[in-house]
Amino acid sequence: MSEVEPRFPAQALREWTEGVYRAVGASAEAADCMIHANLRGQDSHGVTRVLVTYVERMRRGVMDAAAKPVVVREKASTALVDGRNAIGHLVARRCVELAIRKAEAAGTAWVCVRDGNHFGACATTGRSWRSSAGLSPSSPRTGTSPWPPGAA
Predict the structure, then answer these.
(1) For the chain, what are the domain ranges?
(2) Fold adopted by 10-60
(3) Between the CA of residue 105 and those of 1, 129, 130, 135, what are the distances in Å?
């Protein structure tokens, strides 16, 4: 007999995650970023991370639940974003949106982030690039490497 994985309606998942995030001072948009991973089939980096990893990091002050990323320097096709230690999924979403706008206007774009935090669902964020090509190297403050050990 095979084990059946539980399934939850997207709206119920959204409401639960928003409630948990609200309790620690995070935004509904940040919660939506987490749910997006689940809706795209990347469950390991969606809502399960809410309680297991991210809420704990917020409670310990490793991640700032209320922080909003800001553009600190930009040109027509480039930008430097200070993630301000915000939730990494939120920082990634804002940077991808900025890169898309810049690429549509200038033909190409490069957006760099400092203090951006872990954003494990970058594959789901990258899917929003539509037909744009993209490369997303990362070096988060949490010490999580974007490549496997020994690959460099």
Answers:
(1) 10-60, 70-129
(2) Hypothetical Oxidoreductase Yiak; Chain: A, domain 1 (1.10.1530)
(3) 55, 14, 15, 19
Element (H, E) at 81: strand 78-82
User: Which segments of the chain have a pLDDT < 50?
Assistant: 133, 147, 151-152
Query: Given the structure tokens 């689940």, which residue do they identify?
Result: 38
| Tokens linked to 86 | 């915000």
Distance CA 117, CA 90 (A): 10
- Select from 121, 109, 56 the least CA-distant residue to 81: 109
Instruction: Give the C-alpha separation, 100 to 139, whole Å.
Output: 21
136 Cβ neighbours under 8 A, 6+ residues apart: 122, 125, 126, 146
What pLDDT score was predicted for residue 152?
47
CA distances from 121 to 1, 4, 127 (A): 31, 24, 10
